Amino acid sequence: MILKQKPFKFEWLLFFAVFFKKKLLRKYTAQLPTTFAEESQEQVVKSTQSDCKNELYSATLFKTMLLTISTTYFPADDLSYLLHKHPDKVQSVDISAGKAHIFYPEVSPQKCTVALLLDIDPVGLVRTAGPKGNDFALEQYVNDRPYVCSSLMSAAIAKAYSSALNGRCKDKPELVGVSMPFVIKLAVLPVKGGEAILRTLFEPLGYTFTAKQHPLDPAFEEWGDSRYFTLELSNTLTLQQLLSHLYVLIPVCDNDKHYWVAEDEVEKLLAKGKDWLETHPGRELIVNRYLKNQRSLTNRALSVLIANDEEEEAVEPIIDSAFQPAESKLKIHELRLIAARNELLNAGAKRVVDLGCGEGKLIKLLMSEKQFEFILGMDVSYRSLEIAKERLKLERLPAKQLTRVQLIQGSLTYRDKRLLNFEAATLVEVIEHLDKPRLAALERSVFEYAKPILVVVTTPNAEYNVRFADYQEGKMRHSDHRFEWTRSQFESWGNQIAAQYGYEVTFKPIGEVDPEVGALSQMAVFTLLQNK
Q: Do the bridges between strand 351-355 and strand 208-215 make them parallel or antiparallel, or are there none, so unpaired?
């Protein structure tokens, strides 16, 4: 019967090798379990602390699940207060089918590193309740779960670092909201989708990373690379934000969980992602994978996130009555859409692509104009495209009208053949949602590769923010904005793009112009020089 199952994967040979390496590791650290159970923490510190740390820290060589968090914030040893873990003690907590050990390889005011090491019993893991896998007959006995960072690591983070994850610090509560520079190392992380998935998940949150992909077996190069990475992340943020990102994204990378996913997982996801998930460009991917591709749970979570996002977008900035513009009867977003449409009409464009089309508001406006023969809407959010489809009533359109409009999912930061051969492209309130690396990637994909004859870009005018009744210095109009440019900054960017990619650019205000700070929004219109 076993021969009739799916072919045995070469990857499992790696797991057998890891199993014997782990046994070898335990041989040299055999005293640790009894030490943790029978000796006081003080005795551990005096007798075996350095040995334990050396042996535990060397576990990365044996593909053991290890997470280290380092900071150079001064004084760096404040990290121990945030984590509520004494730096002079090796501590342990019980998790399903094993233990998690917490220790500090390095502690000083200049640098502090804390390590979380998981020691999972493979047999105990099989005996616990949970999904057993169905790739082949013996998957529940032969798998990588005891040896890689997976949902077990997320469970350990929630158990070992509970106070920090929930934003509590008894001794120094003022540290909870302090952003610190962190370097995080994960060994070894399974990633379904490779480095592209890591980039999609972590870069929008401000992380820089290096990822080392491990070969399936160094002795057999022809087998190729495995799906396992040693990952190093860097970012400046609060510890609570960092732990919430790791808690959610580690199992998302793996696209699997060691326990049954039920309705309470939706609440966990929304609670841990409340400050960042709804504005993450990859939220559909994150929600779908975190909830193990269960459609009913995914739809429930996304409906909450979309509702929150729509509620935030619906709140227009309150302008001080002394500076209320005449166009206030029209919302600023409507003014942007009308301005973009007028530029397209004046240019005589017939084939148009709306990049970052969202819920299709501009597309709906363009469909009423017979000049536009084909309109393509592209967005990274599948849920937004579903809303656009409903808003545009595509299913009810006559066949001839339906051929004029198409919605596609895609990232603006990657070269895409579907964007070729368009006369005009629009980026309405898109660029300010991208950090610098992704903005640079968008510039190339639009201006170098797609290269439409006309490109219309709109973005907020940061100078106008002082006219808002609730103005605060440094506060942006939307929580997901990575930047907001002044008129001179926008013009500097536009002129650089035009010179680099062979365009001519003109800049125009959107809305009534305030003599001191300009208009509420601003627009750049790029025209390809060879078509002048």
A: unpaired
